[in-house]
Amino acid sequence: MTDQSPTVASATDTPTVIKQRPPRIFSGIQPTGQLHIGNYLGALKQWAQLQSKYDNFYCIVDMHAITIPQDPQELRESTRRNAALYLASGLDPKYCTIFVQSHVAAHAELGWILTCLTPLGWLNRMHQFKDKSAKMQAESISAGLYTYPTLMAADILLYQTDLVPVGDDQKQHVELTRDLAQRFNSMFGETFTLPDAMIPVSGARIMGLDTPNAKMSKSAIGEGHAITLLDSPEVIRKKMMRATTDSHREIKFSTDPERAGVNNLLTIYQAFTDEPGEAIEAHFEGKGYGDLKKTVAEAVIEGLAPLQSRYYELVKEGGAIDELLAKSAERAAEVAAQTLDLVRDRVGFIRLASKVKPS
Ligand code: ATP
Ligand code: LTN
Question: N or C: which terminus of the chain carries fewer CB neighbours within 10 A?
Fold first, then answer.
């Protein structure tokens, strides 16, 4: 990661002009249900910490959400709720363009062009497709779920993104994005900035409370699986007390799959308190699992309290979020159009007569 302003190809016309700008960040979350502490610790928390040093684009990726069947009304509600939760997590519109993916048509257009340049073998290797499709009936697995990574590459590359802050599970998608950018650049000339994934040191992979060997996920069923960002203190305590542990006694970080439950609780505690690992182990020495669960529950309640109160204030304000989303979509579309115009030229699409400049 560098702090220097990278150089970017300007899309005004085919001979590439080099422009200076601050480093750019792009990331997104699918509006597929209630956001949970995995989404917060793996993504939102670091987004807010990074924002003042970068030009940030944070997207609500509703077009990715429909790769799995969604109820239209629930999709609308999740989209608005996510926007409010982005703001409640501390994202400031002064630094961040917070927008909805389907509001900027360039994502679909670049997604298609990249899909046409992606070898099938690259998609066949994607873990997320294999994991998600394995849990579905064959006839409900859409082609969109399969080509999901090329739309994600379009999201990132449209903004000439330098850094993509995501949880551990998205690393492979960012690597594919980089490979696609390199492939396009070598086929058609320098066009895209090569992005890097940025994975948090702590909280990159929070596991399900009831399934400590599988990642916490919005779409997993099971009431005790995830702590959502809007769970009340009572619900958080209840879910935490029911979390799966083991028959050992020691409270220590561990990579032993049998001890994944306790390791997960310690990881959650560390990510919320930012305390060093040794201090945490020392703190819990000689204590029981009941104490551990109570202490972690209180750390989560305290960690989420400011976010929850900001969220409920924003909800009271009503229409302000839709207005912000409209303004942000305009800015996103302007930036995206610069890259897309360049891409269209590079692949050989002719310009609309009204867009050709008189010479
Ligand atoms: P779904 O179950 O709908 O696929 P999800 O819970 O996996 O949803 P995403 O929308 O896929 O969430 O992810 C949004 C962001 O949150 C990504 O940056 C992802 O890496 C991060 N993330 C998701 N789950 C976790 C987790 N359990 N631990 C850490 N980060 C996570
Ligand atoms: N696939 C991501 C969501 C996502 C994303 C992006 C993340 C879609 N487009 C661009 C970073 C950058 C996920 O978290 N499941």
Answer: C
Task: Output DSSP code: residue 30.
Answer: -
Q: Per-residue pLDDT tens for 32-85?
A: 999 999 999 999 999 999 999 999 999 999 999 999 999 999 999 999 999 999
For 125, which DSSP code?
Answer: T
Half-sphere CA count of 236, side-chain side, radius 13 A: 22
For the annotated catalytic residues, the residue numbers are 132, 215, 218
Find out whether the beta carbon of 31 lies less than 6 Å from any atom of ligand 1.
no
Ligand 2 centroid – CA 29 distance (Å): 6
Compute CA 120 distance to the chain's CA centroid, rounded to the nearest angstrom.
24
Cα–Cα distance, 217 to 219 (Å, whole number):
5
Looking up tokens 């080099």 gives 18
Ligand with minimal distance to 226 CA:
1
> Domains in the chain, please, with CATH?
24-203+319-355 (3.40.50.620), 233-315 (1.10.240.10)
Predicted confidence (pLDDT) at residue 11 exceeds the cutoff of 60: no
Residues 104-150 have pLDDT tens digits of: 999 999 999 999 999 999 999 999 999 999 999 999 999 999 999 99
pLDDT tens digit sequence for 153-162? 999 999 999 9
pTM, rounded to two decimals: 0.90
Q: How, if at all, do strands 17-20 and 7-10 pair?
A: antiparallel
Ligand 2: residues with CB < 6 A are 26-30, 61, 64, 152, 155-156, 164, 166, 170, 173
The strand ranges marked E within 156-280 are 163-165, 196-198
Measure CA of the first residue to CA of the last residue in the chain; give whole Å. Answer: 41
Q: Is the CB of 46 under 6 A from ligand 1?
A: no
CA of 271 to the centre of ligand 1 (A): 16
Selection from 201, 204, 197 nearest residue 264 by Cα: 204
